[in-house]
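agent> Task received from the user: take the single chain below, predict its 3D structure, and emit structure tokens. No templates, no multimer pairing.
agent> Plan: (1) validate residues, (2) run structure prediction, (3) serialize to tokens, (4) report one or two observations.
agent> Step 1 OK, no nonstandard residues flagged.
tool_call: predict_structure(input=
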Amino acid sequence: MSPLLIHGEERHRQPAVFYPVIVCDVCGGRIADLRDGNYYWGPDLALPDPRTDAPVLFAHKTCNFRFERQYGRRAFEDLRRLPMFLWRNGGYSDREIRDALRERGLGL
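)
tool_result: status=success, residues=108
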């Protein structure tokens, strides 16, 4: 299963809504609150070779010990930091990030 999915919900008498969700690679449950998850990369605690791509895995913090048994120890980061890194690596400036958040009613 892909850990990043587009989830759809039908709503009674309203148009369906679709949004991205992150799924735990250990238990298969949705990580509904970014504070409850980590993302992992690389084959071990060492950073991956910068000339290669490393897969990203996701897990609930409560699944961490099971994650390590299943996948081994890996470099990781708190899941709350991932959106910032994606925006920055996608070429957004701090101002563009703030503007985009404001457009969605999430202004800083």
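agent> Step 4: summary for the user.
The longest strand covers residues 14-22.
agent> Done.
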